[in-house]
Amino acid sequence: MSTAIQHSFSDDKNEGILRYLNLDIPLHNIYDFIELSRNGINKKNLLFLAKKIDFELKELSNVLHISERTLQRYAPSKALSSEVSQRVIQLARLYCKGEDVFGDLEQFKKWMAYPSMALGMKKPKDLLDTTFGFQLLNEELIKIEYGVFS
């Protein structure tokens, strides 16, 4: 596995992701994330994340590409599909990274809620409906982390 991939899946970062999802399972490498995605994230873990990052059900449904009504119908212990679980993990990873970069989750949530010149005056939170949006936000966080402001 390449060093870049290994670094992005370090145990320290994984502990933060587990904290965001309220999970107590080992996540040591990308294969553990693949297995977690395949097994599915439970609705109760999704709701834990939503509360931690201040997302309403409507916002979640937009990011996860699943209807609000379908989310409401899921039992708390029901696992979400692999595709939806991957997006949940991406969301948890992004917020974990943002908290790390900003030094405080509340500061990161504020950044996510306000338009950014670096993002074409779009709110970062509004870009979470595509994989490209997640990628763009991760790149912006890296720039901020290294002091490169655009």
Write the layout of secondary structure elements.
Elements: H1 3-8, H2 11-21, H3 30-39, H4 43-53, H5 57-64, H6 68-73, H7 82-102, H8 105-113, H9 131-145
Helix pairs in contact: 2-7, 3-7, 7-8, 7-9
Write a structural description.
With 150 residues, the protein is mainly alpha-helical. It has one domain (3-145). The protein has nine helices and no strands. The chain is globular, with a radius of gyration of 15 Å. It starts with a helix and ends in a 5-residue tail after the last helix. The relative contact order is 0.11. Mean pLDDT is 90; it is low at 1-7.
Distance between the termini: 31 Å
DSSP E strands, number? 0
As a percent range, the share of helical residues equals 55-70%
Main pleated-sheet profile: none
Instruction: Kindly name the structural category.
Output: mainly alpha
- Summed over residues and divided by their number, the pLDDT gives a mean of 90
Approximate strand percentage: under 5%
Number of domains: 1
H/E series, N to C? Answer: HHHHHHHHH
Shape: globular
Number of helices: 9
Radius of gyration equals: 15 Å
Low-pLDDT stretches are: 1-7
